[in-house]
User: Which sequence fits this backbone?
């Protein structure tokens, strides 16, 4: 949730900007009020077709279309004053938030409404005012009020509008993240993809502004393409959410099947993700490695209980059956074709490949093994060595580190082992384990409190 200090700052700035805008509107003619009502009506449909673009940030697509279009339209000579758009965005966003608050109250009752979330959502109209000014001000100052696309400086004005808007929105989110976590290291990575989506909304805003300028009622022609765009983006997001839910369900099913290694896949995922991040991999690649770690033993679901739950060592025949769990993991890739691009079955299935080429299934070596699989191999071995099992006690960390070093260059990629050792020395590995233990303790306490 956006911290109150950041939200209050936005509200103060927005109130000052709204005061300036309201003064201009009050001094205007009846035409100003007509424009205000029109802009508010124009913004509402776009707000109600919002699609969240990123899991980590409360960022939406169609909001940007409304803000850009409003900046372009009110920055031209057609508008009585460009700040009219700020009030329109505020009113449209206020109506939007009030509508969903009423729905929530009807569904759950006021007593069950999270008041902190109400405050958070009702800071959004104020944020829209600040973001609108960030987009509109540079456009107006550079374009000098000329008709839209009617000035030689219009291209520069458009670029300044986009850059200013992105800069201000990023600054607000970074301030919010810093207040909450005292770190913004992941935000640049997150915005790398997010800013591309935001920029993609600019062409739609340009078309909307052009239609408004030359024939206002023709903006209705955009209803169908906007609806299609909304449906497409919603489908992409649904696929991502479905993939994430499938991964979680698969990991839970495996844990239910093999109680001896309960928590193993989640710990491996977190160790692998921490090492991947330590090695400088992108956010998307880190997430891919983590997800592969969660399902790296997925194929064990199909292993017979007599082998999977055997409390002592396996004989050669049993071990041969156990080794097939990596191949079985790949079968899920064909079973879940729609999610194949989002669930890293391939990386998961290669965690038993060895750096020297003596592993299985494919006998790959060196860089032919995906980096994510090489990282999971180290994380998997570390957790297996240092965790207690019903038939043996886990090794101490010192002995586990020695064994990783001894296998560097043969079983494991030396660079990955080096990164793991460095991450361990920096306290990252132990923090991952402690966080997992704390979460497990909380989960068990909640289950106990809920009863059978």
Assistant:
């Amino acid at each position: 949730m956006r911290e109150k200090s950041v939200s209050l700052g936005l509200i103060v700035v927005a109130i000052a900007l709204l005061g300036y805008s309201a003064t201009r509107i009050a001094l205007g003619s009846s035409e100003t009020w007509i424009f205000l009502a029109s802009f508010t009506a124009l913004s509402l449909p776009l707000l109600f077709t919002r699609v969240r673009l990123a899991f980590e940030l409360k960022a939406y697509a169609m909001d940007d279309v409304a803000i850009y279009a409003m900046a372009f339209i009110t920055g031209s000579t057609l508008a009585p004053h460009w700040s009219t758009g700020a009030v329109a965005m505020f009113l449209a966003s206020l109506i939007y938030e009030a509508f969903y608050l009423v729905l929530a109250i009807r569904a759950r009752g006021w007593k069950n409404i999270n008041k902190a979330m109400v405050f958070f959502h009702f800071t959004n109209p104020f944020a829209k005012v600040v973001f609108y000014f960030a987009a509109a001000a540079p456009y107006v100052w550079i374009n000098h009020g000329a008709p839209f696309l009617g000035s030689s400086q219009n291209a520069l004005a458009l670029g300044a509008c986009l850059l200013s808007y992105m800069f201000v929105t990023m600054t607000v989110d970074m301030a919010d993240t810093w207040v909450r976590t005292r770190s913004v290291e992941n935000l640049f990575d997150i915005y790398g993809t997010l800013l591309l989506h935001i920029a993609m909304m600019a062409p739609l805003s340009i078309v909307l502004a052009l239609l408004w300028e030359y024939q206002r009622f023709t903006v209705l022609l955009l209803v169908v393409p906007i609806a299609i765009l909304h449906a497409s983006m919603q489908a992409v997001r649904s696929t991502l959410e479905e993939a994430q839910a499938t991964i979680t369900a698969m990991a839970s099913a495996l844990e239910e099947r093999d109680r001896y290694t309960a928590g193993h896949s989640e710990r491996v995922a977190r160790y692998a993700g921490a090492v991947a991040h330590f090695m400088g991999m992108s956010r998307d690649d880190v997430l891919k490695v983590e997800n592969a770690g969660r399902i790296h033993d997925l194929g064990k679901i199909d292993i017979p209980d007599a082998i999977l739950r055997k409390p002592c060592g396996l004989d050669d025949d049993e071990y041969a059956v156990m080794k097939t769990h990596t191949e079985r993991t790949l079968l899920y890739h064909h079973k879940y074709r729609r999610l194949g691009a989002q669930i890293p079955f391939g990386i998961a299935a290669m965690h038993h490949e060895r750096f020297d080429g003596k592993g299985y299934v494919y006998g790959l070596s060196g860089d032919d093994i995906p980096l994510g699989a090489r990282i999971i191999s180290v994380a998997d071995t570390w957790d297996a060595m240092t965790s207690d099992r019903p038939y043996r006690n886990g090794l101490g960390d010192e002995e586990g580190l020695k064994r990783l070093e001894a296998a560097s260059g043969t079983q494991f990629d030396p660079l990955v082992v080096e990164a793991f050792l460095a991450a361990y020395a920096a306290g990252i590995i132990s923090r991952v384990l402690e966080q997992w233990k704390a979460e497990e303790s909380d989960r068990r306490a909640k289950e106990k409190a809920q009863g059978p």
User: Anything to note?
Assistant: The two ends are 33 Å apart (CA to CA). Residues 239-450 form a domain with the Hypothetical protein af1432 fold (CATH 1.10.3210.10). Residues 223-257 form the longest helix (35 residues). The mean pLDDT is 79.
